[in-house]
């Protein structure tokens, strides 16, 4: 019996299980990659222990714990700004006198001339505008907001814009 053939079959079988853990969310993102990688790593550690490589398996467990628990914080700290953003869905109903273009400028905070660097800018990722009865407009959008900005801050900010009658905010 060739023990390497057994290990190869374990790796391919576990890879199949890991692929089942990966999910796609509405063309926006993929989730489950860390879970799939953890399933595959656990099988590798199991193979190492089964073949008698106890020290190497213990070292792999320590590296795995460090990689899963600490590396994401380091990457967010030194990585690009996009890693510190999250998607927020906004559903806004405006009065008939409201200008949707002004609403978009205010939400993106492009007209802010105060010079305050602490004001978070938002980037609109998706936009949908619909006419309602009595000349009102419904604006559905997905914005990229900072993880440091609370959802309630976004809600209060949008609610305070002129001609906005209702706001619905959801974290994605």
Short synopsis of the structure:
By secondary structure, the chain is α+β, with helices and mostly antiparallel strands.
Question: Care to describe what's here?
Answer:
There is one protein chain. The protein is of the alpha+beta class. It folds into two domains: 3-78; 82-171, Alpha-Beta Plaits (2-Layer Sandwich), CATH 3.30.70. It contains six helices and six strands; from the N terminus they run H-E-E-H-H-H-E-H-E-E-H-E. A four-stranded antiparallel β-sheet has the order 4-5-3-6, covered by helices on one side. The longest helix is centred in the first third of the chain and has 19 residues, at 3-21. The protein is elongated and about 80 Å long.
What are the salient characteristics of this protein?
two-stranded antiparallel ribbon; single chain; alpha+beta; Alpha-Beta Plaits; 172 residues; elongated; 6 strands; 2 domains; 4-stranded antiparallel β-sheet
Q: What is the secondary structure topology, with strand pairs?
A:
Blueprint: H1 3-21, E1 23-25, E2 29-31, H2 33-50, H3 54-69, H4 71-78, E3 85-94, H5 100-108, E4 123-131, E5 137-146, H6 151-159, E6 164-171
Antiparallel strand pairs: 1-2, 3-5, 3-6, 4-5
């Amino acid at each position: 019996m060739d023990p390497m053939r057994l290990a190869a079959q374990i790796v391919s079988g576990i890879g199949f299980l890991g692929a089942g853990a990966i999910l796609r969310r509405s063309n926006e993102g993929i989730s489950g990659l860390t879970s799939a990688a953890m399933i595959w790593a656990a099988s590798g550690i199991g193979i190492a222990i089964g073949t008698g490589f106890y020290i190497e398996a213990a070292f792999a467990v320590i590296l795995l714990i460090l990689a899963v628990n600490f590396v994401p914080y380091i990457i967010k700290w030194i990585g690009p700004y996009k890693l510190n953003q999250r998607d927020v869905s906004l559903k806004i109903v405006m009065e008939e006198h409201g200008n949707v273009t002004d609403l978009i400028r205010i939400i993106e905070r492009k007209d802010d001339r105060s010079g305050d660097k602490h004001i978070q800018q938002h980037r609109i990722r998706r936009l949908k505008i619909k006419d309602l009865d009595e000349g009102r407009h419904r604006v559905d959008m997905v914005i990229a907001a900072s993880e440091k900005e609370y959802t309630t801050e976004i809600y209060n900010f949008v609610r305070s814009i002129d001609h906005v009658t209702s706001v619905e905010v959801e974290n994605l």
